[in-house]
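Sample entry (534 residues):
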Amino acid sequence: MSSLTEKDRPIAQLLLNAGTCPRCVFRFCCVGSQASYKRPYKDLMKELKEFLKKNQEKEDTVCFEVADPPCKRIRLENTEEGPDDLNQNGVLRQIPLVTEDNTALESSTVKICSVCLGILQEFCEMDFVKKVCQKVKSADYQFTSFVFSVSLPPQLSVREVSVFIVSLCMSFRKLGLSLAKDDIVQLKEAYKWIIHPQLSEELGVPADGKSLFEVSVVFAHPETDEECHFLARACPDCFKPAKNKQSVFTRMAVIKSLEKIKEEDFHKHFSCPPSSPKNCCVALEIQCSNGAVFVAGKYNKYSRNLPQTPWIIDGERKLESSVEELISEHLMAEFKADSFNFSSSGREDVDVRTLGNGRPFAIELVNPRRIHFTAEEMKGLQQTINNSSDKIKVRDLQLVTRSAIGHMKEGEEEKTKTYSALVWTDKAIQKEDIAFLDDLKELKLDQKTPLRVLHRRPLAVRQRIIHTMKSEYIDEHHFRLRLKTQAGTYIKEFVHGDFGRTKPNIGSLLNRTADILELDVESVDVDWPPALDN
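Predicted structure, serialized as tokens:
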């Protein structure tokens, strides 16, 4: 058997006697050739039988000369006392070999592996591969590659330790040998070596570790679920309740505890080698998911009775819709996503319009079934949104990357914004009374958190700047004020003063009571996303 050498023979013998499948034999013998694992199970078992019978000495012994250079998988250790199993010539005494009549080996062809619990047996067959692919195809996802992930029962780690540390290492210490653990092939790795080519051929796309489309399988083995429980008593610090975890016996917690527990304590609580299971693992879940897709654009809001996001207080909806919903409902339908997350460069109040070139926004579409859209299709989607309501309008709708959204967030605090405010005063004014406002440049404000947002924002005094102002007289009690301000400035509070919480303010500058009747955002100076030919 080309995958195994003569020095692997005692390991293979012990593993098969412990009820281990051929592929797990390869793993513990540190076979790194992927091709060896991909061969049909029956062929592997047949060749393993032949390997264990081959080159027997007449006295039915297997001899290893100490002078032979040790391979990296088995090395001779210096011992103070010569092991009983070495003869005077330094030759390893007889290790019984399985024959065709050996029940342990014969039953291995039908028995479930005591280590992988059937993962490298039944679940490597084409029947299971087709079952996974049927699930993928019925989910109706768009994808050009896939990444395959596996969730294994945590008790598999316990069984591996039982076989490796206790059964193999104890046996080899008696022979003056030691088995190196670092090169053992991990179960997940071996499984993916086998399953990847089959899935790729059946789905017609390559496996790619960087793919955004994930096919995942969750395995469970109810029969042996309680095999981890003794670890919680031995290493309680490793098992602490965590959010979103149904059980404290996670794979990572089990592995951590296995690193801490003493070998003698492990041997007291767990059978070595592990018992043979009656049942195979079950595929508890076969799931598909696509990485999030991000869509960006700019929106105009023309209504003074429309919030940016759903306005719900104590479970009661105050207004029937929102900017977020008017845009996202069409994107959700076209991308066939599970959910979405809306973000924007700042926000306007429910009674404030957003005019000019609009406010930048981005929507994260979670687990979309459809991900490929041409520029023309995005234009059509934009038109569909615009035709659905006269309250909003969208422009420059496009697909973007997650990292590109950072440009929008940078502008939220660093850029400038231009507003138009309709101001009322209690005392009559003349044009000359407001003309001085046009000459004020880089006016510094101290704004204490407004009363109207104090329930959702921390109390603080924020310094903001009014870069320029331009007044337009209307009548004795009204004028329009155009302002260019630092992002994050509370304009309403700058006009009426918020009971003195914003200083200075229009009221204090004019020495009279002032209030704001209407407010429009005329521009948000964030050059993102890139303008398109709309």
